[in-house]
């Protein structure tokens, strides 16, 4: 499936021009003339990013970016503006924007920024999928297997874990082995990394 680029800009001619350019680069495009239109649109679950004008009628692009972050939205944003200044660009970058482009935007610069934004979104989606898989497998562990996984992730040896949970070292090995099997960990180090990714035993 092609990546999708959302464009929010109140300049219809610019939206059309950017849309044609990005479609010619084998991307799908959805355009909006106002923040409210974008917010009212159901976003698709696929590789995507947002090209966002800073100055819009009504709610500004900076406001929209802040609102998306408040909602926990990870959609990468590339800002565009014909009135930008250094403090504004610094504020946007500190807020997590991928880039801050001055209009008129050069084609190479735009495609490079969109490419970076899509790559960031792809990485984020891959990480979310990995986390979901880990959480699903972790959900199949018994309470004792979870307990032993957490203690192992803290660096405790089998003998120490046995003392902590009041069982034998052999029983700990069995539970640890079951936890590794269910989590799909090939090595104990894999299991520890999974525990760290799930923030198990971090407290």
TrEMBL record:
GO BP annotations of the record are: phosphorelay signal transduction system; regulation of DNA-templated transcription
Residues annotated with 4-aspartylphosphate modification: 53
According to the entry, every stretch annotated as the HTH luxR-type domain falls at: 134-199
In what residue span(s) does the Response regulatory domain sit? 4-118
Q: Which InterPro entries match?
A: CheY-like_superfamily, Sig_transdc_resp-reg_receiver, Tscrpt_reg_LuxR_C, WH-like_DNA-bd_sf
- Gene Ontology MF term list: DNA binding
The domain of life for this entry's organism is Bacteria
Which residue spans adopt a coiled-coil conformation according to this UniProt entry?
none
PANTHER family reported in the protein's UniProt record:
DNA-BINDING TRANSCRIPTIONAL ACTIVATOR DEVR_DOSR
- What is the protein's name according to its record? Response regulator
């Amino acid at each position: 499936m092609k990546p999708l680029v959302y464009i929010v800009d109140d300049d219809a001619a610019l939206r059309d021009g950017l849309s044609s350019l990005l479609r010619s680069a084998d991307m799908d495009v959805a355009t909006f003339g106002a923040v409210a239109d974008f917010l009212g649109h159901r976003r698709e679950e696929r590789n995507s990013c947002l090209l966002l004008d800073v100055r819009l009628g009504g709610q500004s692009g900076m406001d929209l970016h802040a609102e998306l972050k408040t909602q926990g939205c990870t959609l990468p944003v590339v800002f565009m503006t014909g009135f930008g200044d250094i403090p504004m660009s610094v504020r946007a970058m500190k807020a997590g924007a991928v880039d801050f482009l001055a209009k008129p935007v050069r084609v190479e610069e735009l495609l490079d920024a969109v490419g970076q934004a899509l790559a960031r979104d792809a990485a984020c989606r891959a990480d979310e999928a990995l986390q979901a898989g880990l959480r699903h497998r972790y959900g199949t562990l018994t309470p004792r297997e979870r307990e032993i996984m957490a203690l192992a992730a803290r660096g405790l040896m089998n003998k120490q874990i046995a003392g902590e949970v009041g069982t034998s070292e052999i029983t700990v090995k069995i539970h640890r082995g079951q936890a590794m099997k269910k989590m799909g960990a090939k090595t104990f180090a894999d299991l520890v990394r999974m525990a760290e990714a799930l923030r198990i035993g971090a407290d």
